[in-house]
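User: Predict the full complex structure for these chains.
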Amino acid sequence: MINLRVLAASAAVLSLTLSFVSEAAANGEVNVYTYRETKLIQPLFDAFSKDTGIKVNVVSASSGLEQRMKAEGANSPADVLLTVDIGRIDEAVQAGVTQPIKSEVVEKVVPAQYRDPDGQWAGISMRARVIYASKDRVKQDKITYEELADPKWKGKICIRSGQHIYNNALFAAYAAKHGEAKAEEWLRGVKANLAQKPSGGDREAARDVAAGKCDIGIGNTYYWALMMNNDPEKKPWAEATRVILPTFEGGGTHVNLSGVLLAKHAPNKANGIKLIEWLVSEQAQQMYADQNYEYPVRAGVAINSTIAGYGKLGPDPLPIAKIAANRKAAASLVDKVGFDN
Amino acid sequence: MISIVSLALQPAGDVWHDLINYVLPAALRDTALLLVGVGALTLLIGAGTAWVMSRHDFPGRGMLLWLMPLPLAIPTYLAAYVYADLFEPLGLVHRTLAIWLPLGDALGLLPNLRSLPGAIFVIGLVLYPYVYLAARATFQVQSAEFAEAATTLGAGRWTIFWRVSLPMARPALAVGVALVALETLNDIGASEYLGIRTLTVSIFTTWLNRGSLAGAAQLACLMLAIVAGLIAMERYGRRNASIAFSAESPHVRQRTPLSGARAWIAFAVCVLPVLIGFVVPLSYLAHQALGRGLLTNFDPLLWRHTFHSFAFAALATLMALMLALATTIAHRFRPDPLRYLVMSIAQTGYALPGLVIALGLLTPVLAVDNAMSVVAAWIGRSSPGLILVGSGMAVVIAYTIRFLAVPVGMIKAGFDSIPRDYDESARTVGAGQAVMLRQIYLPLLRPAMLGAVIVMFVDCLKELPATLLLRPLNVETLSTSIYQFASRGNFEDGALAALLIVAASIGPVAWLTKFSDVPSGPA
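Assistant: Here is the predicted structure of the two-chain assembly.
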């Protein structure tokens, strides 16, 4: 029989236990809110702590961190926000939870294209949205994004949901370049070429190509490298395909950016800036390239050999802000053409 | 709630034009089909197995008793990943079949899991325990008199099931199916992965890609309205059905012993859902965990994650149980519209996606936190930081709100099966409310309460979006740790954390099912 008093007592004990879980905001610490999975960045944070003696505390989430910072207001423990895509960078700036990163180091090291003119954010790494093409069935070596709507690919393309942030950014870039009307026409064409309803993730795109469901899958650069190098079970999926770096007709491969922002009410602002500067240091950029298979933003840092094997990346010069400005239009077009239906 | 409504009251920009024209028709259709499919499947499996388990004795029943609810421990999105992996053209099922059967092209006819039927299959087979637990709690305390009277009138076993037991179990079945429906409505991981664009998926894209939190909140309110409509319809449908049985003592009916083929069939009927909903995903995860050397390179941090998961879940379950008892007891002693309203509101949290609840909670919870800082500053103390969020209490509050419907619904159904006559008899002999509570209600409500505790606890262990957003710095739970891998496209590397969720659930489930099994009555 459940005794109410026992219940109440246990509740009290448990809540006491929980209160020990709480964070600290002492000197020598920096608090990071991140959209990047902790497993991936922990090695970088560990190296940073070793270098500087500053402890890094982390919360990672998949969405809503800027809302949390907004609600926390002046008491927010957040110093630094790490994002994995353009959309979240834009959201955070729009939410007014950031302040300019005033750092000569960042200005010197990060190319102007990959940081905000007002200093609200800086890019740390890039990944490209590319094509996993069947080794057997696709003979072409070059494909443009525009060409994906060509009827010759009818029933041959696999892709995840058109509303996923990676596709959203690609479609937004397309709309920014060609205008909404052309983008709509293009999306209808791509939709008509799909082998199946958009589903799964990027690695499933490679698997579906390997299984013969489609000839080309759309995915990010690092998934392919991860399958090839880190997962024996999935290696055959990568081996059945080769990565083609597509470009827009005028040139340029679509890249998305993971970025770093300084919190408006950062309690450990100096440490926050130290961390940001460290993340664009040669050492950190090399770690990014080798462990995450991403393209470093800093010039002169060697990219990982697997990624280098895709060919030379010529990132689309379209300013990030233009892509962010077209996010909503892209989301709207995806629904309008019934891309996911 | 209020803060979600206030979010919804902000101008949403021009998103509604698109939503109405392009999003809602497909989202409503997909959501409706998914709900009907999953509802029917879980009702069939849940009620069927509960009936077999509560009215029959057969070899293996003891083991099944604690296996049956275990699919609850498998998060829907993990089940989706596992089954999609298994049934892909390069997956285990195809490869195995290709070796043993010369089917050739016929393999292409195997079901594609990334489809609506696939989603119904996967979600239904991990959610059926909601119906099973609710149904079993009722089937086994159902008064034997009705069945005996029916037998006297010449009714067979099936007639009794269809005409007597099933109608009498309707409130419990409704609660079970309602929980399944709400859980399905809430699911985002499995639906999105399998390519089903439900309302919840639309809420997320409205927020994330259209940058319209207000539009997303308005969609959430629409969803809430639909849920309220469904609940009202269900209530209306049974407005004339008085459920509580006669004043006769509900002596428990003896379980019929089965032997031979019948015993085998009973065993098969019950074991099949467990195999599909639990054993297969579990084995696949175990296989992945072993194959990837996750055990040999055991990450000791996982113990910390387990502790956090356990503490959050246990605390929220206790809070919810107390709140549920308070509201349902108040309603029982003095049913009036106000108390009814309180009870109904307590159930709405389940209808909202976890992330919407988390977003809705941010403002009020942090307002309290910030107010405490102001007070601290005013009395000259240094700021204590954010107490509710910093301590993880925000997560506990989110769980409590999100899952309160489980104990409220189940305990309410438990109350419904206690005859009102009992109350009057008790009052006649001068028993006060406290005595009635201790000596009548709580003992009779035990199966319902224990069922509620299991479901709620396990639900909390699995919860992801609210945990992600509201947890303090440096705190991971098992589910957030699985998420770290899954979002990288490598959910298999989180297999060990998934196994720990299951392990953490098995203990309470086994212990509680043992206590919730009413002994077979006298011959």
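Confidence is low (pLDDT under 50) at residues 19-26 of chain A.
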